[in-house]
Each structure stands twice: as structure tokens, then as C-alpha cells.
Amino acid sequence: MRNAIGILKLLSEGEADIREGRIKSQEGVFNEIENGLNENP
């Protein structure tokens, strides 16, 4: 039951982020990760 409630909270937060424009493209996220890894060899 706790897992189900946690998943519902996560979905709710994600929907709020989308409504408020707090989103990034998948490509942008992976570019940031790759750049961060390349900076710290």
C-alpha cells in the first residue's frame, strides 16, 4: 500500500512539474550528464 501511495505522489509531482514548465528534453539531460563526466576524468 505504501508503494502505491508513493507512486501516486510521484505522478502528481511530475504532472505539477509539467504544468509549471519545469521540464527538460531527454537529449538535454543526457548531454549534461555526458559533459559532467567528461569534465572529471
Helix content: over 70%
Total individual domains: 1
Q: What spatial form do the alpha-carbon principal axes imply?
A: elongated
How many β-strands, per DSSP?
Answer: 0
Instruction: Return Rg in Å.
Output: 15 Å
Structure described in brief:
The protein has helices spanning 2-19, 26-39. It is an all-alpha fold.
Can you put this structure into words, describing what you see?
- The protein has helices spanning about 1-20, 25-40.
- The chain is elongated, with a radius of gyration of 15 Å.
- Helix content is about 80%, strand content about 0%.
- It contains 2 helices and no strands.
- It has about 40 residues and is mostly helical.
- The model has no long low-confidence stretch (mean pLDDT about 95).
- It has one domain (about 1-40).
